[in-house]
Write a structure and sequence with these properties.
two-stranded antiparallel sheet; alpha/beta; about 40% helix; globular
Length: about 290
Amino acid sequence: MKLGLHISSFTWDGGAPALRLKLADIAQRAEQGGVDRISVMDHVWQIGPIGPPENEMLEAYTALGYLAAKTDRVKLLSMVTAVVYREPGLLAKAVTTLDVLSGGRAILGIGAAWNADESAGLGLFFPPLAERFERLEEAILILKQMWSGDDGAFHGQHYQLGRTLNSPQALSRPHPPILIGGSGEKKTLKLVAKYADACNIAAYNLEDTAHKLDVLRQHCANEGRDYDEIEKTAQIRFDLGANGENVGLTIEQLHQIAELGFSQVHGSLLRVSEPGQLDLLAEQVIPAVDKF
């Protein structure tokens, strides 16, 4: 199993003037410690489970571009891109740009979007849920077409593109991996089975998580898709304790997740900016989970 660091909070000592230096330091130390990938949220306000909306939040693809320049090995993605926040053609260009400038390290994490409050607050397009899922499927088709080298037109229900030219093309082959986030049984996991290279499912209740994998397996059977070719990634929080008192519990939790068939875990590391937390992850947790 491999671990990814999910950076979901930017409220650190020093405020905005120190933010870029702290972000670079966290990313570089995580990479040196053996983290496989780094992700950020695609939100414009902080979300409720983490902090009030007034807390610091960076735009996802600008932040990922910065991280591309500050790292050398880790894969980079938004966990996950809100499909309606960007037109699909522009999103394809953003992910392609990230892939080219990072040397082929981009992953497209994408989902149907959910945050109505921030959307209303900043005037972002946010249609009803059914339409968001329709747009998600069309966006994936557009992205695949643009990454295929086919620059023909695209005529969908929601999107009309006259020429899907994408130059330069992504370095990743056949294209940057497409990861669909979420665990909705009727729509999200069905789209995973149809189109995705990877999924991301919350793993806070492992009985529920196991059920979601069974649902995905059935969708794959219905679609004629090989379940095993889809990378299974899980979303959790790493709470190692202020002095590492929860390291053993975290390793056991990760072992249980691996037993379900997950090969990658994305986790927000609590107190990530505090001295010692990334060291605990690198020195104790990552070596243990490498054996799973």
